[in-house]
Amino acid sequence: MFVCFQNFPHGATGIHSLILRCCNISDRGLEAIMEFLQGLYKLEIAGCNEITEQGLWSSLHPRLASLTINDCINVADECVCAVTQLLPALYEFNLQAYHVTDSALSYFSPKQTGTLNILRLQSCWEITNHGIVNIGN
Asked: Which residues, in sequence order, are bridge partners of residue 69?
């Protein structure tokens, strides 16, 4: 994947949604994109296996209202922790991750569940009823 930032001389303030699918973008690349796209409020990352939890942690900005993370092999519980701590205005969170456990859902506080209206957990095989009960407790 190649993105030419020179084609967006004004910081791409008009771009509000970004979808990255099956790309080899690195943590640093994601961080650079997030810094550049200051108007971004919707981010979808799917099949980007070079992105780690640390990269996500450093790239998530409070302005994001919608986040989708699908099939990224380096995503687990710490990613959910980052989401709950760094995205206070999160409205929609879609997660498909095989390594997310019940303990990840305990990171959600009443503050997040107050703004979060849509939570989709798909193929999160390690989440049980106990994890769902943890949301907001």
From this structure: 45, 95
pTM here is 0.85
The Cα angle at residue 91 between residues 137 and 19, in degrees rounded to 5: 125
End-to-end alpha carbon distance in the chain: 41
Give the span between the Cα atoms of 30 and 7, in whole angstroms: 18
Amino acid letter, residue 123: S
* Amino acid present at 116: L
Q: State pLDDT tens for residues 55-104.
A: 888 889 999 999 999 998 888 888 888 898 899 889 999 999 888 899 88
Burial (CB count within 10 angstroms: exposed 0-12, middle 13-18, buried 19+), residue 125: exposed
What is the Cα–Cα distance from 74 to 111, expressed in whole angstroms? Answer: 27
